[in-house]
Amino acid sequence: MKKFIIRAVAGVIFAAVLIGSIVYGKSSFGALFLLVTLLATSEFCKLVKEYKKTTFSTWLAVLGGGYLFIATFMAVHGWNVSPLTLFTPYIAVVAYAFIKQLFDTDSKPLDNYAYFTLSQVYIALPLALLNILATVGAEDNNTYYWLMPLSVFVFIWCNDSGAYCVGCTIGRHKMFERISPKKTWEGFAGGAVVAVIAGFAMARFFPIMNMWEWAGMALTVVVAGTLGDLVESGIKREMQIKDSGNFLPGHGGMLDRFDSTLLAVPCVVLYLNLIGVL
Fold first, then answer.
1. Which residues, at least 6 apart from 262, have a Cβ–Cβ distance to it below 8 Å?
2. Mean pLDDT of 242-259
3. Rounded to an integer, what distance in angstroms lies between the CA atom of residue 225 and that of residue 163?
4. Alpha-helical runs (H) found in 101-175
5. Which of 244, 180, 227 is nearest to 48 (CA)?
6. Residue 27, exposed/middle/buried by CB under 10 A (0-12, 13-18, 19+)?
7. CA-closest candidate to residue 73, choices 137, 119, 130
8. Cα→Cα distances 80→74, 84, 115, 184, Å
9. Cβ atoms of residues 189 and 204 within 8 Å
10. How far apart are CA 35 and CA 39, in angstroms?
11. Dihedral sign, CA of 246, 43, 71, 275?
12. Residue 174: how many CA atoms within 13 Å on its side-chain side?
């Protein structure tokens, strides 16, 4: 009972901070997700180093991921700096991280190159793309609107809640038992239904997209988010760990909290671009 209360309180605080930071404005949004980027990248590097005994520089990976978020934030909010100037320091960090391996005689270069790159592509890039979602629906004299980033998380939470309730009651057919024994196709369908209903509700209150476009976004989040969850579960299963960290009591680490987001955000950006909203 005590563990349940701790988990519930931590979950409420996490959701409140997330929602509040997104809705309050671009400064709080940027500060929160810059912190998430730094912590998630660091957590990933720590896990990889413990498991694979890699020697690539964690601080360079964190620096690169953090700068990528900042540069994208500045670019989408119209800072009077050319994209080439903005992203040149990031290119320099990545190049230096690779060149540095040439002078590390005790390292495994291929593993170091691969996992450093993965820290940027798997963690930093999707979180940086949240900045692009935050421009959708912004007024002409503004570059920030909270609706799309918050909607991604609302759909993820609706999917998780629906999948859990349906999966626990009527779930019989396993999705990927080798990776996640508790996930079922019935739960997946239940989560999709709840998320689509939330999409219909979004269309009622936020008509920047029609009902079916909102439903399409909800399904995009459901499919990509579920795959993101499974990807992280596969990583943890290979490493034989239960949680990626202990950042949030009862909820695990940063990667545990944002695993669905890491695939959902790029897919939503692609979806909105395909339907002409972005």
1. 122, 123, 126, 127, 228, 231, 232
2. 76
3. 12
4. 109-118, 125-133, 147-170
5. 244
6. exposed
7. 130
8. 9, 12, 34, 49
9. no
10. 6
11. negative
12. 8
Which residue type occupies 64? G
Q: How far is CA 220 from CA 24, 28, 195, 242, 260, in A?
A: 26, 27, 10, 27, 11
Structural tokens at position 107? 């390292």
pLDDT (0 to 100) of residue 248: 64
**What one-letter code names the amino acid at 161?**
S
List Cβ neighbours of 103 (8 Å cut-off, separation of 6 or more).
none
Q: Which tens digit of pLDDT belongs to each residue from 167-214? A: 888 878 887 778 888 888 889 999 999 999 999 999 999 999 999 999
Mean pLDDT of the chain: 89
Instruction: Report the alpha-carbon distance of residue 59 to residue 63 in Å, rounded.
Output: 6
Q: Which H/E stretch holds residue 3?
A: helix 2-24
Q: Cα-atom radius of gyration of the chain, to the nearest Å? A: 19
Burial of 227 (0-12, 13-18, 19+ CB in 10 A): middle
Model pTM?
0.91
Q: Which amino acid is at 82?
A: S
